[in-house]
Amino acid sequence: MSEKLPYQSIIDGDIPPWVMRFIKGVGKAINRYRMIQKDDEVVIAASGGKDSLALALALSVRRKWLPVSYTLKAVMIDWIEHPIPAEYKEKLRSYFSALGIELIIFEEHQFPESFNGDFNCYLCARNRRRILFQYADRENASLIAMGHHLDDLAETTLMNLCFRASFSTMLPVQEFFNGKMHIIRPLIETRESVTRRLAECYDIPVVKPVCPYDQTNVRARLKPVISELSHIDKLTREHIYNAHDFSSSVLPEKQDD
User: Fold this and answer.
1) How does the average pLDDT of the chain come out, rounded?
2) Is a pLDDT exceeding 90 seen at residue 158?
3) The pLDDT of residue 128
4) Are 62 and 15 in contact (CB under 8 A)?
5) Which residues contact 151 (CB under 8 A, 6 or more apart)?
6) How crowded is residue 75: how many other Cβ atoms within 10 Å of its Cβ?
7) At what angle do helices 192-201 and 17-32 cross, to 10 degrees?
8) pLDDT tens for residues 115-124?
9) Burial class (CB in 10 A: 0-12, 13-18, 19+), 82
């Protein structure tokens, strides 16, 4: 395709209709579940992939339009075993700086001694989450925003249904530590095709961290299944989303002091 457009143009307000729909769709999900409210401190889990970078863009741009303010910080975990190239770290720093978001990069071991030589997707995710929770706790931030999208929700639903006999999935808002912290998923109603298009059209500095199981895990193998179902009904992902009851996944409204 032709040369990519500069992401700075979106930040400056030159937003094409399809990008505007994306940002407003993120805002709609946020409002539906009251994910972010006045004066909230939000930590973005920035993997460097297209989804977390698209999330940061949406959260930053929509903040300019709101009558209330919230604080954004981003945390990236650079695995020592599979480090992110220095040139990409600089590009990512420039990207988040342009968005007005502080980026903190932690160098951590992907295979800590506590794993006792074991490694799988669950352990990796738990390790990442532990680091994010520890940082958020130090910063007194109660919200961690993750870039999980509608396709992730659909895949998780099928994983749990087909392999665990459970009709469950990731939640738009997930409580931890008796409500002290919450994971929020503002992209939960956004298709992966939208974040992919954003990365294809704009010079967003996407970097794909190395994952030993990236193409062989169950989630990766379910992607073509979801795609095939969508050829039968293009709203397959939305139907799976709407089959769940997320009425309890709404944060309480903040009361003015």
Assistant:
1) 92
2) yes
3) 87
4) no
5) 191, 192, 223, 226, 237
6) 23
7) 140
8) 666 666 677 7
9) exposed
C-alpha distances (whole Å) from 143 to each of 23, 168, 176, 184, 234 are 19, 22, 10, 7, 33
* 107 within 8 A of 238, measured Cβ to Cβ: no
Work out the average pLDDT over 12-26.
98
Q: What is the spatial distance between Cα 248 and Cα 132, in angstroms, rounded to a whole number? A: 24
What is the side-by-side strand order in the sheet with 143-145?
102-108, 71-79, 41-45, 143-145, 181-184, 173-176
| 169 burial via Cβ count (<10 Å: 0-12, 13-18, 19+) | buried
- Which residue type, as a one-letter code, is found at position 136? A
Domain 8-243 has CATH 3.40.50.620: yes
What confidence tens digit (pLDDT) does each residue in 122-131 have? 777 888 899 9
Nearest C-alpha neighbor of 237 from the set 173, 174, 185, 169: 169
Q: Determine the pLDDT at residue 40.
A: 95
Q: Residue 248: its pLDDT value, please? A: 94
Is residue 8 a contact partner of residue 225, using CB atoms and an 8 Å limit? no
217 in the Ramachandran plot: left (φ > 0), alpha (ψ -120 to 50) or beta? beta
